[in-house]
Amino acid sequence: MAEGALTSSEYIKHHLQNLAFGRFPDGHWGLAHSAQEAADFGFWAIHVDTMGWSIGLGLLFILFFRSVAKKASSGVPGMAQNIVEMAVEFVDTSVKESFHGQSKLIAPLALTIFCWILMMNCMDLLPVDLLPRIAGLLGVHYFKVVPTTDLNATLGMSISVFLLIVFYSIKIKGLGGFVGELTLQPFGKWMMPFNLLLEGVGLLAKPVSLGLRLFGNLYAGELIFILIALLPLFAQWPLSVPWAIFHILIVVLQAFIFMMLTIVYLSMAHEHH
What we know:
The longest helix is centred in the C-terminal third of the chain and has 38 residues, at about 190-230. The chain has a 3-stranded antiparallel β-sheet with strand order 2-1-3. It is built from 9 helices and 3 strands, in the order H-E-E-H-E-H-H-H-H-H-H-H. Helix 7 runs antiparallel to helix 8 and helix 7 (about 150-185) runs parallel beside helix 9. It has one domain (about 10-270). The model has no long low-confidence stretch (mean pLDDT about 90). A hairpin with a 5-residue loop joins strand 1 and strand 2. The chain has helices at about 10-15, 35-40, 50-70, 80-100, 105-120, 130-135, 150-185, 190-230, 235-270; strands at about 20-25, 30, 45. It is globular. With about 270 residues, the protein is mainly alpha-helical.
C-alpha cells in the first residue's frame, strides 16, 4: 500500500474522492478537506480536479493539432503529422460510413470527442499514487486524475450530445415533425400517450447510456488499479502490467464507442421519418 497511514478501505475511498470546491454551512467558499465536507456542498460542488484535467487536456489537444496543422507539409511528414493525419482519416472514414446527412459540424465534433475522451482515458494508465502524492505534498488532500471516472464529466458530455440531437431534429424536421416522431409512432395517433412514453424513454436513454457506459468502464478500470496498488510491491508489477496492457484496449474502445454513437444519433436526427 502506498499510504501506510490509511486502512485499505480508507485508501480506496481517498483515491475515489474528488477535490471539491463549494460553499460551507457558515457561508464561506473553499476546498473540502474531507469527504464529509465535500458531501455537505451538495449539488453545487465543483470538482476542481475533473474541471482542471478536462480543460487542460482539451487545450492540449487544440494546441497540438493547431501546431501540427501550421507546420504541415506535402513532403515527408514527421511523426506528429503522421499521428494527426491518421486520426483525421480514421474519424473522416467513420463519419462518411455512418452519417448520411449534410453538416460541417459532425466531422470536427467527432474528431474532438474521440481525441479528447481518449486523452482523458489515458490518464488512467499513470501510476495510481504518482500525481495524488505530488498533490499531497502541495497540500491538496484529494486529487483524481481521470476525468472520465467522474460521472459529472461523462454525463456533461452526453447531455451536450443530447442537446445537439434535439436541436438538429427540430432544425431538419421542424418542431411538428419532431413532436410527430415522439407521438405518432409506432402505434399511430390513437395511441399517442403510449407512443410518447416509448419514444420519450428511448430518447432520454441515449444520453444516459452514453454517459454511464463511459463512466462505468473507466471507473471499474481505475478501481482495479487501486486494488492492485494495495498489494505488496512484489505482486503489483506482475498484475498491473498485464492489466494496463489490456486496459489500453478499453481506453481506446470507449472513446471510439462514444464517438460512433454520437455520429449515429446525429445521423438519425438528420433523417426524415
